[in-house]
Each structure stands twice: as C-alpha cells, then as structure tokens.
Amino acid sequence: MLSDNMVTRLNAYGKEERLEVGALLFKRGQRSADFFLVVSGTIEIFDMDKQGRTQAITVHRSGQFTGELDLFNDRQILVSARAGLDTIVVRVRRADFKRLVTGEPDIGEVIMRAFILRRVGLVRHAQGGVVLIGPGHSGDTLRLQRFLTRNAYPHRLLDTDTDPSAEGLLSCFQLAPDQLPVVISPDERVLYNPSSTGLADELGLTENLDPTRVYDLIVVGAGPAGLAAAVYGASEGLETIVVEGVAPGGQAATSSKIENYLGFPTGISGQALAARAQVQAQKFGARLAISRHAVALDCDRLPYRITLDDGQEVQGCTVVIATGARYRKLDVRDYAKYEGQGIHYAATAMEAQLCSDENVVVVGGGNSAGQAAVFLSRTVSHVHLLVRANGLASTMSDYLVRRIESSPRVTLHVRSEITALAGDKLLREVTWTHRDSGQDQTHPVGNVFVMVGAEPNTGWLGGCLALDPKGFVHTGHDAEGRALASPFATTRPGVFAVGDVRSGSVKRVASGVGEGSVVVAAIHQSLHPPVA
To answer: What pTM was estimated for this model as a whole?
Structure first.
C-alpha cells in the first residue's frame, strides 16, 4: 500500500476516473494494460474456471493498486480486473507508468516489490495459468514444464502416471494417451504437444517486433552477461532489445543455489537471480524477445541485422554476443534416446521433485556439478558424483568440496566415467567404469545430471567473427592481431562478445555480469566516436 504522500505524487501521472460496479478495467490476454490506483471502492482481480465462472484471486482497496510483472513488458496479461463497487480510481496510462517508475524511485520500489510477489503468488498457486497434462517423466512433458517454470508462467501439472484426477480431464477433453502431453488454457483451448516457440506464441509470452525499428543495442542471449549488458545499456539511455532462445538466465538458471555471489550471503538460485535482472532491465525500458533463437548475423552492412528462427529480423547499430556455452554431451550409446527423460542438464526444484527418494548420478567436477550434488542430496536417496580427474580441489570451490566430503548422501567416484545406459522408454540403469582399473559398477538409476565441459553457442554466427580453435569468440585484437580499444571488441566494429561465449573469459556468473556491465562503455564509444 502506498503512503498518502506517495498517492499525492502518483496523482500527477494519471487521471481520476469513476467506475460503475462491474466495469471491466482490463481482460486476460490483453497487451499493454494501464495501471490503476484505488481511491475509493474496490477492484476485483479474477480469472475464469473451466466452467466459465469467475474465480476471484484478490481484491484491491483504497490505497492499493493493480498490476504485476507484465506491466513492464508487452506480453499478454494473465488476469482480468473489474470494479467490485462503484469505484474511483486514478488511471495511469502505460507510457506515464514508465515515467512514474523511473521518476519516483521510492514509489517504483514499492510497485516492483508488489509485482514480483504477485507473480510468485500466481506461480505458487497456479492462478491465471495453464494446465499441463502428460506423463511426468516424459521428455516432452518435462520440456514444456521447464519452459513454463523458467519463464515464471503459472501452471499446474497433472501427471497421468500418478494423478488420479488426470483420468477425468482426459475423458472430458477426449484425449488419447498418444496425444499427450497437452497444454490446456483457461479458455479451454487444447495445444497438442506444442513446440516451446509455439507455446510462447499461444500464451503471448513473445512481444511484437517492429522490423523497421533500429535499436542502439541488440543483446543476443539473456544469461548473466547479456542481462547485465541490457540493464546497463537501457539505464544509460540506449534503446535495447534482448533476443533469447529459451528463457532468461542461460546456463546459470540451471543452478539450484549460487552461494558465492557477492551480496547474497544465504545464496540465490540462478533462476531467481535471472528473474530479478530481467525485471530490472525491463524497468529501464529494455525489450525482451523470449523464445526466439538467433540463427544468422548479417554483418556486411549497417545497421546489423539478426535473423530469428521465425524469419523475423532485428536491426541494431551495435550487437553484444552473449549466447554463452552449453554442457557437452557424453559419448555413450543410447545417450540421445534418454536426453530429456533421464538425462538432464539442470538441477532445480523441478528435477529434485522428479527424482525424490531415488538414486541419481551427477557427472562433472565444476561448481555447477557440486551445487547440483549438494542440492539433490536433500531429497534423493543417494547421489553418485562422477569425475574423470583424481579429485575436486582443482576445479571446484572449497566450500562445495567440503560439503560433498561431509555428506553421507553423496559418494565421490574419481577417475570414473559412464560407459553404459539401459532402460525402456525411460532410463533405468547406469554403468560407470574406473578409468585405471577397468572395474564396472552398475546401479538402478533413472536420472543422470550431466554438467561437464563447455561448448560455445556460436554456430549461428556464420563466419562473421573470428573464433578460437574451440569455437569461442576471439576478442581484443583485430584480424591482423592489433590490439583493439576494448577487450570485448570483436573483429567487426560495433560487435562485442561477453561472458562464457568469449575466448579466454572466466566461466563464472560474477565474471559474466562484470563483463556485461563494463562493455556498455565501449558501446557508447562505438555509437559516438570521440572527435579527433
């Protein structure tokens, strides 16, 4: 709730209106809803149940206001609002709302905190969202669940293998097992095993892009480095757009808890850190094109053009490549068969619930693997941590090494690697072999978490930039080896690389954030070269 002083200042950004009881303020699926402050009366926030009846979520009274995180972007809103009584409100139009948040920082802080908590509540109680129906361990069910979770979209999972209420819904919508998984929207539209991009489009998670608009800055990749570049670029007045193929956070979003990131003494999950950075970037005016993969960079003319996987193009005067790196796959027979339904590259609360009270294997000796092992050990029966090296000390932070050594639920297997996978549709059994003795161990394991190595996401660049022998973007020197003005500058003027995708970078979250923030100074110099 806002103080009287805040209300007085807020009034200057809007206009008072009188509403009759039942008057609709905004409707689910609408884009660019206005912000409303209740002066007197009430505003009901509601959704529709599957019978088409209104279902109240909350009621705002005098001094309270409407809205949640979608007011910071141009996505479809999740809920509807109407006057519960004859009501007086102050309507703040969308453009004026953005001025309010930046011009009155104390009011903006209250609003932002409320918006974040409201989205958390919608997600936690699956309000204003969709129903995902399918086998809980199916690869496509997990893919859709991960996409919804990482984009903080409210949803409820009905596992057809374990949930007794699923049978009734299958009958109601006349769904056969071979049609699963499906996503059912509040208006009862049924989406049959949609692609992640198709689901994003159907749910209004993607923003409409203007092909004629030329941005000051295009950031490709919304990991820590890309989000930092977006926050600092937008906050310094650059028209900024972020292109991201899946969801904000990148590889960091797969970390259950980062405990050595400055300013978070109790730790923070990678997803929570990314969510905060996303809101921060949008607060300053950055736009995010989510679920849009960059597939080509036209670097032969200005402005630069980036082609997206749906055929759209984004134009910009400068480009920051922040597409990061992905974990390497293991060279084991039937590996591809179990990817997504037994083999995972993230260890979050969703995966922890999936393998509760089971034995699991974590492969890798870096911090991500250590964080996964410690996190999973709280809920699984036992964690087998496999590393090819002689130990963990040279590759993992000491606090994680000590926790692993002291945990009775984690066993470290050094000089070991997976050599066989077995199962039916799902993974059931894993064999690993000691590299020196050749001794095999086979265990009933249904979930393996692979967190080894780093392969750069640079295949889409199509020869535009110089790469090192491993495929990472070469920076700091031109094609002739001469030093460039910025250590993040590539061989193309106005194109920069930061974070894990950059050759020679330190593969740490804090390092990526630092590079993403520092590169903005070089972007300004590129846009406005100093006069000689």
So the answer is: 0.91
